[in-house]
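Kindly inspect both lines:
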Amino acid sequence: QSREDVRSSCINLYGKVVQKLRSPHTPAVEQQLISTLVPLMLLMQEGNAKVSQKCIKTLFRCSCLMAWELPKRAYSRKSWDNQQQTVAKICKYLVTTHQDSAFTFLSQSLEYAKNSRASLRKYSVMFIGSLVPCMESIMTEDRLNEVKAALENLRHDPEASVCIYAAQAQDHILASCWRNSWPLPHGDSWVCDPAATHRWSPSCENLPTSHQQRSWIMQTLGSWKLSLKQ
């Protein structure tokens, strides 16, 4: 809903309904509440003080009912700008605690990345950049390609900050997946391009046996990395 007063009222009403719920709750109620996590946190970042306040209150009510232990910064109205570690902690908590809903979180963030409001596109992109690395063990090729296509499109967004965050999200996803697939010796500092350091080509036959089962993701990421240089 484009009107701020309507969004604020709806979020407030939802929070009051949640406040009236009592345990034990059904699986359907639990899933419904889980599905509101990402929308509430992203709307909290849109820049409207009234909407943000209602999001915080509603998120807190959901957490109390479900006994969630979200990172404290998840309830903060402070902008996520220069707060990548905060976003990473939130994403790690969501995937660790609600792994069955991880793809729902991804779909929601991809949908918000299409929003007409630039602030929501920007913070959705930042969220995606932290969420995808947390999902590496469950990520599918189709969903990774969907993320790739979305970020490529957002690199040409009319809002400059969205373009910048999309590029950063791409770099973050690539760096995290490459690093996890080829751990460095203890004590070594991280370098951006392990392919150059290890003279490694991301093909199945060149991968160590322990990494062959993830060859498809490495091939996809390798192609993505190459396309970014062009």
The chain has one domain: 3-181. The two ends are 39 Å apart (CA to CA). The first helix runs from residue 4 to 20.
